[in-house]
Amino acid sequence: MTSATLLSLPIILCLGAAAAGQLIPSRAWPRRWLALMTMMAVTVVGAMLLVTVRRDGVQAAQMGGWAAPFGITLVADLLSALLVLVSGVMGLTVVSYSAATLPASREAGAYYPLVLVLVGGVCGAFLTGDLFNLFVWIEVMLGASFVLLALEARQEQLEASIKYMSLSLMGSVVLLCAVGLLYGVAGTLNLADLSVVIPDSDQPRLLTAVSMFFLVAFALKAGAFPLFFWLPASYHTPPAAVTTLFSALLTKVGVYALARIFTLVFTRDTQLTSTLLLVIGGLTMVTGVLGAVAQYDMRRLLSFHIISQIGYLIAALGLLTRGALTALIAFLLHYIFAKSALFLVSGATARVTRTYDLHQMGNLYRTQPLLAALFFVPALSLAGVPPFSGFFAKLAVIQAALRAENWAIAGTAVVVGLLTLFSMMKIWREAFWKAPPENQPQEPSRPLSLGDGVLGPCMAMTTFMVVLGVGAEPLMELADAAAGQLLDPGEYVQAVMGGRP
Amino acid sequence: MEMFLSITVGVLFAAGLYCLMLHSVVRLALGLVLLGSATNLLLFTVNGLQRGFAPLVPEGEQALSAPFADPVPQAFILTAIVINFGLLALLLVLVHRAAQETGTDDTRALRTELKDSEQ
Hints:
The structure holds 2 protein chains of 2 kinds.
Chain A: H1 3-23, H2 28-56, E1 59-63, E2 72-76, H3 78-101, H4 104-108, H5 111-127, H6 131-150, H7 155-186, H8 191-197, H9 204-222, H10 230-234, H11 240-264, H12 270-293, H13 298-319, H14 322-353, H15 364-367, H16 369-383, H17 389-403, H18 407-433, H19 455-470, H20 472-487, H21 490-497
Antiparallel strand pairs in A: 1-2
Chain B: H1 2-21, H2 25-46, H3 71-102, H4 112-118
Helix pairs in contact in B: 1-2, 2-3
C-alpha cells in the first residue's frame, strides 16, 4: 500500500463508517458489527503503518497533490503510528465492551457512529502535519465527545456536558487565537515548515508569547494543572464505556500535541518552556492524586487519577532528554491500557453492585473473584508495582528525572506513586475486601463470567499490561526510537518537505 | 482599518468574557458566540488586511507578486466559523434541555450535584 493510502485510511475508515452507520437501519446489531469491523480495520492499518514507519522511516503524504507547505499534509512518525494503533485497539475494546453493557436501544441510536467519529478525529489529530488541521481534528473529536457525554440526557450528564463543553470551547478559542497569531508571525502552519522557519525568525519574543497560547490551549485539553477542573466534573457521568474511551484518547491528544509542538516547533527557548512544563507537570501530579485520595465515588476517584498521570507525562516532556521522551512514550502506552482497564472494571463492579459509591460496596472479593483479579492487576500497575507495565514506565520517568538531576520531579514522582497505591488500596479495601454494608439487602449475585462479555475487554487490557510489563524491552526500544525521532526532527522535515529545505 | 478592527476585537473579547462570568447559562452561550467572533476577527486582522489585491497569479507569471490578500486566513476563518456554528448549535440544544430538566438557567444550580457528593 502506498503511504498516502496508509495514512488516510484510519481517518477515512472511521468517518466513512460513521456516515454509513447513520444510513443503515437503526437496529443494534448492524451498527455494532459495522463499528467492530471498522475498529478492527483501523487496528490493522495502524499496525501496518507502525511496521512501515519502523522499516522505512517517517511517512508523509500530500493530500490533493499540493506540495507542502501549501497543501494538507498527513505525516506519521513512530509516535503517531503507535498512537493510531493504540486508538484502534482502544476503539475495538470500547465497542466490544459497549456491545456487552449498553441496552439495545442505545446501541441502535447514534452511539456507534459517534464513537467512530471520535476515533476518526483522534486519528486525524495524530496524523495531521499542520496546526490548523490539528485544530479541526480536535474539534471533530470534541464535537463527538460532547454528544456522547450528553446522549442519555440525564440531569447530571446535561450539567456535566455544559461545563465540559463551555470550557472546551474556551480552549478552542485560545487554540484558534494561537494558530492565527502564529500564522501572522511565521507565515506558515505546516509543522515541518515551522520547524525550519522558526529558528531563523526575527521575532523570538512574539513567538514565545504565541507558544504560551499553545501551552494553555493544549494543557486545557490534556487536563493539566490548573486547567483540569472540567475533567472530574464531567468524566464520571456517562456510561463506563464512554468514560473509558474519553480517558484513553481525549486527554492524550492534548499531551501528544504538546509533545509535538515543543519538540518540533518551539525549540528555540527551551529553558522557559521546560521549566514551565516541569512545574505544571509536578503540580498536576500532586493535585490529581490528592483529589483522588479524597474521593469515595469510584469513577470520580479514577478521573482524578487521569490528571495525576498526565502530570507524569508533562513532567517527562519538560525534561526533554531522550531518556525522558522514551519514558513519556512508554508511560503513555502503559497508562492508556491501565486506566482503561480500571474504568472497564469500575463499569463491571457497577453492574454487580448497581453503584459507584465505595461506601455501598463490599465483599466483591468473595462474590466476584475474577473481577477482583482484574482490578488488582491494573491497580498495581498504575501504582507502579513490578512486574507490571507501570513499574517500567514509572521507573523510566524517575530515572530520567534523576539523570537530569531534577530531584524535585523525581521525589514528587515517587511520592505520587505511593499515594496512587494508597488510593488504589482504598478501592480494594472498600469495594472488594470489607463486609458488605448492613442496610443493603444482599442478593446473592452470580459471579460474572466471560460469557457476559463484560470481562473480556478487561481481560484483554490486563493481558496487554502483563505483556508490556514482561516484554518491556522491545517496547522500550520502540519508545527509544520514537523519542529519537522527536528529538531530531530532521527526518520528519525531510519526509514532509521532500528535497526542499 | 487595523486600528478599528483591533479595538473591535478587544471589545468583543471583553464582552464575551464578561458574559461568561454572569451566572446564566444563556449568557454563557452568548459569551462563547462573542469570543468566537472576536477570535475570527483577530485572525483576520493579525494576518494583514489588503484591499483590492486578489490572490491571482497574473498571466505569464509563475508566482504571486508582492501586494496580495492572503487567502489562507480567510480559509481558516471560514472553517472556524463552520465549526463554531455547529458546536454552538449543540450547546444551545444542551442549554435548552438542561433548562427543561432543572427549571433554571443559573450556572450555580449546576453545582449542586457536586456539593452533594462532597458531603
